[in-house]
Amino acid sequence: MFKRSFHSRDRAGKATKSSKRSFRGDPSKLKLQHTLTSPIITLVVGCDKRLFACHQDVLSLSPFFSATLKGQFYESVSKRIELPDEEPEIFSSVLEYLYKGDYYPRLLHDKKRNQWQLEDASGENYGRGSVESTIYHSGVGGVLLKDCVIYCTAEKFGLDELKRLSLRKQGLQTGIQVDVILRSARYAYDNTPDQDAKLRAHFLALIIRSRKTFKRSGTMQMEMELGGSKLFFDLFVAMCNHVDDIVDITNNRSPKSI
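RESULT FIELD:
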C-alpha cells in the first residue's frame, strides 16, 4: 500500500567536507541569471503581516503564484500579494528553496556511506546553529513537524520537487513526540489530496514501525476514540497488509494458516 519511509538509522555520522554534496533542485528550472532583474513582489504573510520580497520571475516558478500574478487578487500597482493563512517561517523556507534549490537545514549526501543526512545544526558542517524540527502553527493552534507543513505548502503552490525534498528530510527526523506525530498526520490528511499518498504513507509506516510506543500512548487512544479522520481507517488497512505480509512469509517457510 505504501513505500517504506527513511529510517532513523539512515542518518550518517560526521564525515569530511569533501565526501558530502548537498541536494539541489534542477538549476535549469531556476534560471536565476535571467530572473534577478525582474520586478520585486512584496508578500504580506500571516496574521502578523510579515513582509517578504521576491523577484517576480522567481515567484512565478510556482504555478500558484504564476496564476496569482495574472489574476484579480494581485495588486498590480503596489505589487503586493496577501497570504494571511500562511505561516511566515514556512514561507521563508519556500522562498529559500525557490532561490537556492534547498532550505535550511540543507540535505547533504555522505558519499562514503552513500547516505543522506541533514546539515549539522551544531555548525560543524557549516550549519547556522540549532534548528527545530517542529513549529507552532497558529492556524492549528499546536506544534507540527516543520517538513510536514512545508510539504503541504508545496502541494498548494505546485512545487513537486519541494514536496520530494521535504518528505526526505522528514524521514531523517528522530525523537518526535507522539502527539506531534498524530497532529501532523491529521494536518497532512487535511491538506493533501487523496491521490497524493506519499506523505500520508510516511506517517502510516512510522506508526506501524513504532507500534509498541503508540499502543501504550494515551494520546493515541484519545485520537482514535475521537475519530473524524481517514487516517485511522488507512492505518487499519496498513496494519492488515503488514500482518498479511508476515503470514505470507511464515507460510512460505512452513505452510500453515491463521
